[in-house]
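ugh ok so i messed up the first submission bc i forgot one of the chains. this is the corrected input, ALL of the components this time, i swear. 712 residues overall. if the numbers dont match what u have on ur side tell me asap before i send this to the collaborators (the ones from the other lab, u know who)
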Amino acid sequence: MRPVPKYVGLTVLLAMAGFVALGFLSIRRDVDNLRVISQDNILWSATQMEVELLRFQLSMATLGVVQTEEALDTALDRFDILWSRVFMMGKGRVGELMRQYDEGHGSLAAISSYLEEVDPVLSSLDPHDTATIQAILAKLQALQQELRFYTLRVVRADTAASASLRDRIQSSSQTTGAISLAAVLLSVFALAMILRENRRQRHLVDMNRRLADSAELSSRAKSRFLSMMSHELRNPLNGILGPLALLGQSNLASGQQRLVDQAKSCGQSMLQMLAGLLDYGEMQDGRFRLKPEPFALTTLAASAGMSLTSDGASAMQIRVIPGTPERVCGDLDRIRQIIVHLCEYVLEATGPDCVELIFRHDGENLVIEICLALNMPAVDWKLDLLMGLGDLAPDQVSADALRPLIARGLIAACSGTLRLEGSDSGRRAIQVKIPAEVVAVSNVRVLLETRSVALATIYKAGLKSERVVFVDEGDTGPADIVLVDIGCIGEETLMARLRGANPDALFISLGLPATPNAFDDVVESPSDMGRLRSRILDRMAS
Amino acid sequence: MSSPALIARRISPLILSAFFVLLLPQSEASAARPALVLSRPTPSGTETVEFSMAELEALPQSTIVTSNEFTDGEATYRGPLVLDVLEHLGLERAKSLRFIAANDYYVDIPASDFRRYNAILAMEVDGKKLGRRDKGPLWLMYPISDHAELRGDPVYITRLIWQVVRIEAQ
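and heres the new structure output, hopefully the right one now
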């Protein structure tokens, strides 16, 4: 179905506007005609003149009979009124029309002429002058006939004017009817066009929806495939990395050791990419979920540094700005992935002279800054690629852009922001802000139950911290964590006593116990101070 | 509707009435007649107030500069406000008033017209007294030039009654 051309709609609109204008003008002309004809009604003036002439005639006849001064006054009064009627002619719009009706006949002209002639006679009329009165009456009789003819002319002219107006209004009404009919037809046409266009639009919407559904399905299938593939690849990769690690711990020649290290580095890098691809696939098909947990910023900094495998990573300076909260809440693994992808990309793509990774907290967000010192301005476009593909189509981008793509996706999933800052001196900074609440850390009370004082002293030295308070003999109050040396286990009365004295404490066995169920956590290797510190920090955060 | 016979039928009552008016005793017609009579019906009959020309001239005078359908160009009309005249018989709040001319022509006008337009009973035009031959001595005049809705409106053309001799409350 072809779309309705725009000019058709414009033409219909213009035609409708034209019809409206024509209809309005037609009705306005009718109103003006009616207004003019009602103004042009001279019949009343003509008949009034005739009546006043008759009244004056009667008053003169009465004067001729009674011959009194009062009758003369009445006659003069009637004369004045007749005068005011007759001499309206020629004055104003009404007078002009009166004159037009008299043109070619001279009836009013004859009357006005006679009134002017008889005016001085009446002024000096003797009521007993019967001859003059009779002469005036005779003349008035003749003028009465003239005035009657004048009135008839006015009547006929009014009739003709009314007929003309009727014809004009009839013609106008026919025009208005034709215009209305045309407007209705045009409206029907416009309605048909609108319905046709509406049907076309709905068809297009349906088609677009089907295409979108198809594209969505295809995208989900690809994402799903990506997720499955990355998942399936990680298992054999771990199978490779494990033996490599064991091989690396054996006594190898330096050349072989270097090859093993290189294989390990590549494997780690591949593992990161697979983890990123897995997350990216989950983000694409909507299955991605964050796992926020309290973690120490030092842990994040250390694990990010350890995960970097590129050349130059070993020279990277990592530091946490003093005063930064010890622990925040966030998805540690995803944030580490963001850092690793960005840093690896920067190291591989730009080869900076100096890289610094800085962690701080601005009160609401965890702020990670990757500061670079560059000697090659030409690599700017590579840094710009961090912010997005720009005008490039996805198929125009090389595999280099994969890490920034994954990092941007993870940052967006964490509701964070990515910003690229620069200066003329060649220093550039990539700033990532991710919302992360500060986790309040309080002191934790630790009770050590060891078989010997020497062992307790070793643990105290290893776990020493400003936040850790060791409970000594004689201290009152329950402990938060009870570390129990497995050499003490077997004495059920001891465990019962400890549980009774520290009902809410976390019980951790130092070594593998015979009854693991009696403990909340087990540290199989008693010398694993890192694991112990992590458990203590988690307890502080909770 | 506008045939000569019909016109004759319409004007014959006027001719007859004029005839009977003329047959009234001449003493009544010629007595010192007031310039204007106001009247209103009362339960006991009719209450009237009469004005001489001097009394009308003594009222506050207003001026209207306007054109109309019966004169050429604009003229300056002067006379008392109709509302001021009507107040003498408490007619300013009447719903409708009948203005009657010396030739028995009359027109009914809503009193609201006089509050809205400040019409006057013109006694002078361009400084000259209106005589009987000049549509005087009293000509009801609206400020037509000041109000677009009055110009050319046939209703207001008929309300410009001249030679006014009587105003009756309806």
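quick check: Residues 297-435 of chain A form a domain with the Heat Shock Protein 90 fold (CATH 3.30.565.10). that seems consistent at least. The CA atoms of residues 107 and 113 of chain A lie 10 Å apart.
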